[in-house]
Request: fold
Amino acid sequence: MDKTLIVFACLCGFAAAQFNNFGSFGASSNAGAYNNYNRGQQPQNRQVQEAPRPTGVCKELNERYPVSGSCDKYVECLNGTAEEKLCPDGLRFNPNVNFNVYPCQYPNEVSCLERSALQPAQPTEQCEHQFGYYKLGDTRNCSYFRNCVNGVGYDFQCPEGLAWSSSSYRCEWPDEVDDCDAEAFLGFRCPEVPVSKELGAPAGFRYYRAENNCQKYFLCIGSKPRVLFCGTNTGYDELTNTCVSADEVPACPSELRAQAARVREEEKQLLAKELEFNAKTTNKRRNIQVILSEDAQYVRSPICQQKNGYYKVDASCDAYVECLNYQAIDMVCPDGLHYDLEAKWPGYPCGYPMDVPCVGRGAAQAAQPTAECPHQYGYFPSPLATVNCGQYRMCIGGKAIEMNCPAGLAFNPESGRCDWPDQVPSCKADDFLGFSCPAPPVDADGAPLDVVLNYKYNNNCYYFFSCAKGHARLLACDEGLAFDPASGKCIEAEYVDCGSNH
Ligand SMILES: *[C@@H]1O[C@H](CO)[C@@H](O)[C@H](O)[C@H]1NC(C)=O
Ligand SMILES: *[C@@H]1O[C@H](CO)[C@@H](O)[C@H](O)[C@H]1NC(C)=O
Reply:
């Protein structure tokens, strides 16, 4: 038996797992893809059925053709000599493959049509045929399957949330597998949605976070659920229907939230490390160290409990003491930064106010403003910005660098971060985005419905406005998807007419 046989053990099933796309806007924008990804991957039924030919005849030196009426017998001509052959039990002869390809394939790839005869099955204790893929479990337990090779069974399980399909020979969404009860299999029943008299049944998809896992959520298409997962350190946010950093999701366990916050913090510090002042201060410290090691006549400071370390100065937010070789040195953070009580020597001990609050710790040094900057260091609203809430300035050593938040986000002077515009009181979000959410639909009593509705963004094919509770947020479709105004969802880009608007 040719080794290649085992290799075509249908990797396509596992491609389905990759649709658990972990992008931060994953949930809302992927829904279309889930629906469409099956297209164009149906078993090949377009085989040319050649007129039956008597065996033993070769029209070409090297060729294969089916034995009349049989789906697994064929004739192989090698250098003009014909020989009748039989596919292994469980496989079928595909007349349409190139001569240099092994012609016996799994049933999902070969249509027998009128070639209906097959050799008798040669079952083993583990397998009904020598070769093939077979579903295990039942309608509530849909993910297990067995690959039979020479009558020996190897058991596998689909990626979490997917069910084995005997017809497509792949792991599929459970709602697309006939003999799988998706609700029982996933242990989730899609809640019934109240039907509004005026608007009828709600359109599109609905999402629900899993009760016991903030990174897991269900997508309901009609009444059929699919389970999806957020990526590392992200959790499912019910307001935006997206996966966001887990520290912003109260439903996530505290360890995960702390971990997500730590990762964000580390990313930020990495950035801060690149800043000029850091380099400068490090040099300064190095110089002091050199002096100290050369001059051993120092007096041990009572402040220095340890040989090297940082110590706070009461009633000051930005002064601190640095101990080097038990020698205390009065230090002060650069203007605009605060001394971080958590700092560990020899790490840089000064941080931005949004990360190192001052509350209850006294005052900082007097500001040293420049023409461009209110403090020597920090992130500040840009006086150049008018309606553009996303523009801000970063000050380094009193020099301003104009910066812009990622598209659709506004600079929040309170947190010093880029934020949703509706979270920034000083930002006129509608002017900034150039978009106002239409009034949300109302229920029978006139109360606005708590729904998320999406709208096209100008002429752009990939961005869209997502409106919840009257607030607009600019979101992007995941790669390969485009926004479909008709369904209000991101679907595979090839199904959206983007014209020249890319
Ligand atoms: C194919 O057949 C030709 C003529 O019948 C012969 O000369 C040649 O050696 C054969 N080749 C092989 C690989 O058998
Ligand atoms: C599901 O089916 C697999 C394979 O037959 C079996 O090993 C497993 O125990 C079943 N699980 C449940 C919960 O029935």
